[in-house]
Structure formats: structure tokens, C-alpha cells
Amino acid sequence: MIAIFRFLWNATRGYRLQPWRSPYLCWRIETYSGRKMADVDFPAFWQFVWHERGELLRFLRWAARMDRIARRKPLREYS
Questions:
Q1: How many whole angstroms separate alpha carbon 59 and alpha carbon 41?
Q2: 20-24: which pairs have CB atoms within 8 A and are 24 or more residues apart?
Q3: Where are the domains of the chain?
Q4: What is the DSSP code string of 10-78?
Q5: Low-confidence ranges of the chain (pLDDT < 70)
Q6: What span, in angstroms and rounded, lies between the C-alpha atoms of 1 and 18?
Q7: The whole model's pTM is what?
């Protein structure tokens, strides 16, 4: 659960109180849905989040899994 919040915290850097203004999140919405970045405003952002909430949660779980894998200590190699 912490990894999910870590991703959200990093993805909204500089726009934490207004995530619909984040260029990164607007770009992600544009690439996923086809809606132009310039058209993403408060209602459009929350409509997208609500409509795609299942897919967003699935993505956040995946991102958390990848974060855990990346933070693991590598196994020592024996030569």
C-alpha cells in the first residue's frame, strides 16, 4: 500500500492539490484515452478517474509490485 502512495506522491509532484494540472498526469490521460491534454480540466480529470477507477487501481498495484522488485537487494553472485 505504501508503494501505491509513493507512486501517487511522485506522479503529482508540484501539483498535489490540483492533480488535473499535472503535465505528467494529463499526458498519461491523453495517451490512454485519446483526450487532448489541453482539454483535461477538473471535471474531465475526475470523470476519467471515476470511469477508469478499476484500471487505475490495477495499474497502481502493478506499479507497487514493480517498485518492490526494483528495491530488492540483488542476490550475491558466487564465482
A1: 22
A2: 20/44, 20/45, 20/46
A3: 2-64
A4: HHTTT-TT-GGG-HHHHHHHHHHH---GGG--HHHHHHHHHHTHHHHHHHHHHHHHHHHHHHSPPPPP-
A5: 75, 77-79
A6: 22
A7: 0.73
